[in-house]
Amino acid sequence: MVHRLILDTDVAMGAPGSDIDDGFAMALTVDVTDQQLELVTTVNGNIDVDTSTALALHLLDRLGRPDIPVVRGAARPLRRPLHDHPARDRVADVREHLTPLKPAPGRAATAIVDLVCANPGEITIVAIGPLTNVALALALEPDVATAVKEIIIMGGAFLRTTSMLAMPGEFNIWIDPEAAAIVLNSGAPLRFLGLDVTLQVELNRADADRLTATGRPFASYAGQCAHAWIDYLREAYPGREFCTAPMHDPLAVAVVSKPGLVTWRPARVEVEICSDITRGVTVADLLTSRNPPEPNCMVATEVDSVAFIEFFLNHVYSL
Fold this sequence. Notes:
Elements: E1 3-9, H1 21-31, E2 35-42, H2 49-62, E3 70-71, H3 108-118, E4 123-127, H4 132-140, H5 144-147, E5 150-154, H6 171-175, H7 177-184, E6 190-193, H8 195-198, E7 202-204, H9 205-213, H10 217-236, E8 244-246, H11 248-257, E9 262-271, E10 282-285, E11 297-303, H12 305-316
Parallel strand pairs: 1-2, 1-4, 2-3, 4-5, 5-6, 6-11
Antiparallel strand pairs: 7-8, 9-10, 9-11
């Protein structure tokens, strides 16, 4: 069976001081044989949406798939102030150094509606950035909730907290909690992979060295980006030793083909939108009480890290 995908992303691989796992996720969707990437939509998150759009086009070109349409999405959250991207100063001129490529016309939310509703039960959305585009698509056309095959989301934390007062919720949910609330209450089939599992899947320096040594067009570039990101983490967080890069977003792509990489639990999840102290916190009821609420999603609670890394590297090495 071929899985037809929309990848909704705030991709930033290639921008100095920006996270890289979204680029690896895009690479997986291109290489895994039972996945067919039909649309990429970009969203403000790790980086501004215009730079993300340019980088998505650049990465697809590097991956040999410039034919896949990229549609620019939301430039800001639904209601929250625009996030001050940590890498803003370092990426001001990123777009000037990329081959100028044009995105497909239109808006991301509309493109999502059109593709999903024209192919009921066929399209899986893999959302690895803030959920603004997905929420807007559901608001434009509520039938997306029943027409979509499922929505797989990298976001949230369900068995732990972030332990960060400045960002109490996981980043993708914290950026636009109102969008996350809309998605959670939409009735769409949802699967969430939160920090509980994604922080357990990591790329280390030895893996990055092996990627660089392949000499392959994407793999060698990705290995260089991995080293640069680990270096950045060590400088940005001097009190902590960083020798690895978590592969949050590639795990969301991998479970499309291999859902057994993680253990899933039905849950009722709500997101905090009223208090800045707990902004974006995802509260998960795992339905263990005597009179549990109705579930609205599945959440990942465990992951086979070794099997995932083997699956992941076997694909990326060849690119």
